[in-house]
Amino acid sequence: MRRLLPLPASDDVDLDAAYWVEDPGRQHVRGVMIASADGAAQAGGRAGGLAGPADVELFARLRAHADVLLVGASTVRVERYGGDRPSEQRRAWRRTRGLADAPPIAVVTRSCALDPTGPLFTDNLTRPLVITCAAAPAERVAALEDRAEVISVGDRDVDLPAALDRLADRGLRRVSCEGGPSLLAQLAAAGRLDELSLTVSPLLLAGIAIRVLDGALLDPPARLQLVHVLEDDGFLFLRYRREPASSAEHPAGAAGTGTP
């Protein structure tokens, strides 16, 4: 992988150094997404259909940088999520930085329509978290409680800022949100998305496609600062930081999520 920006360009990139967030002092939320060159966030119904070897490697590195992986229930189902299992080398790398061997996966779901016998709940190193709300069906909550820790925030919908605060209270400050686009849009609308790691896949799909953020229009738009541009085999790896938002940018009530 080579660095195109900032200049001077380099053919020798230390991915850990390029993406590591030193003690953020507060909770830091990173979105990790991929899109085709014409803006589609999925190919064949899955984000994984856009990926290549370098993107898979970066995805694993960014997981290794996180205290917790935040993901929507639809993404868990579509991408067939299992628990994160870092290599022994990456586990050792995490330990030297004060991180647990593997980050837990925190699933955001209003309905708790998740399979408790699926790999997310049965094949993991760290017990997953299920973030839901009071309106979730009690029988579904009960079915998950043996396999995960269930956190309820909000009444009819998940209160996403409150959920993030609950994670921060547990010391989970480096949050890596792996989608889907609806959840990422909710984070952006709530003013809780600090940066975006976006892979641009060298594919054209056309047709009707979902984008990396799928939600209500951000008004005003969230402005981003470009940190770097990396490249490998035609894939571009863009790291953006979000510019500080004014208090008026996000109206009250924008925080709820309808993640099913």
Strand order of the largest sheet: 1-10-11-9-2-8-3-4-5-6
| CATH topology descriptor | Dihydrofolate Reductase, subunit A
Distance between the termini: 37 Å
In CATH, what is the homologous superfamily? Answer: Dihydrofolate Reductase, subunit A
Rg estimate, integer Å: 18 Å
Number of domains: 1
Q: What integer is the average pLDDT?
A: 92
The CATH class label is Alpha Beta
CATH architecture: 3-Layer(aba) Sandwich
What does this structure look like?
- The protein has 260 residues and is α/β, with parallel strands linked by helices.
- It has one domain (25-244): 3-Layer(aba) Sandwich (Dihydrofolate Reductase, subunit A).
- Helices cover 24% and strands 24% of the residues.
- It has helices spanning 15-19, 53-64, 73-78, 88-96, 119-122, 138-145, 160-169, 181-189; strands at residues 2-5, 28-36, 68-72, 105-108, 129-132, 149-152, 158-159, 174-177, 195-201, 224-232, 235-242, 256-257.
- The chain has a 10-stranded mixed sheet. Strands 7-12 form a two-stranded antiparallel sheet.
- A hairpin with a 2-residue loop joins strand 10 and strand 11 (235-242).
Defining traits:
260 residues, alpha/beta, Dihydrofolate Reductase, subunit A, ten-stranded mixed sheet, two-stranded antiparallel ribbon
Topology readout:
Blueprint: E1 2-5, H1 15-19, E2 28-36, H2 53-64, E3 68-72, H3 73-78, H4 88-96, E4 105-108, H5 119-122, E5 129-132, H6 138-145, E6 149-152, E7 158-159, H7 160-169, E8 174-177, H8 181-189, E9 195-201, E10 224-232, E11 235-242, E12 256-257
Parallel strand pairs: 2-8, 2-9, 3-4, 3-8, 4-5, 5-6
Antiparallel strand pairs: 1-10, 7-12, 9-11, 10-11
